[in-house]
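It is worth pausing here to work through a concrete case rather than discussing structure prediction in the abstract. The textbook approach is simple: state the sequence, then state the predicted structure, then interpret. We follow exactly that order.
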Amino acid sequence: MSKQVDQALVYQEPKGKKWTGPQIVLTVIVLILSLSCLLPFINVAAVSLSSKSAILRGDVSFWPVELDFTAYKAIFADPSMPHSLFFTISITVAYTAFSMILTVLMAYPLTKKRLRGRNFFSFLALFTMYFSGGTIPIYLNIKELGLLDTPWSLILPGMLSTYNMIILKSFFSALPKELEEAAIIDGANDFQVLLRIYLPLSMASLATLTLFYAVGKWNSFQDALYYINNKAYQPLQLKLYNIIKGSQAVDIAAMEGGSSAVATSVSESIEPATIIFATLPILVVYPFVQRYFVKGVTIGAIKG
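Step two, the predicted structure:
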């Protein structure tokens, strides 16, 4: 009898996976959405490596035509570009670190029912999601604080995201209360519970919010456009904005016959080359936290 059981376990026919209609439709939709996000980036990279004549002829699609590195040479020939890159990295790291500290310190107390005025503080946080003072009042506030033309004007404003705080608060609320009660019985205070229980169990959510903050600050340029005049404090995205404006001016000058041949040849590919230069660092970082992304958001949405 045991021999027949062994044979039945050994000689099992492999079961092929059957695709259902909804699965096929969903896979096709996801594939189309993925291509719609990936192909434009590939096109920008191909244009940045193509010659101006090929770009003007419309021959460039998803592969470089008449390979040309002139645009990248022009970018690296500008000493302000590497400086702006490292400055942007430092600003992004500082902003993300401070933002995560504030987010944790606000989300954790709001999960405690014993906190007096918890509903009031939650209302104040939610109020900022729907109503804002506006650009001019915020600018005047930054000016009165003496933060204009300083790196702090790129860090302090908007350092706490209510949306991210709600995600982390929901994640904290979903953690088992028995762990906190056991720690309190052992003599732990609130800060010890936060540092030794909540934060280690929330690495997925923390990594996701860190990505949110870092990508948001890396892509922002309007705050620098409003608050920064000193070229030493211009982040990379503001440099990209100025380069695009400059390339448009070169195109206009070329149409009027007042532009040099070198500037005109670079103007068609300088924009995509600068976009690749500004986007590549965050793309390098993203794969290391991508595996936490879906897990962190979905777990934080289990409980309100």
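Step three, interpretation. The chain is about 75% helix and 0% strand. Residues 261-300 form the longest helix (40 residues).
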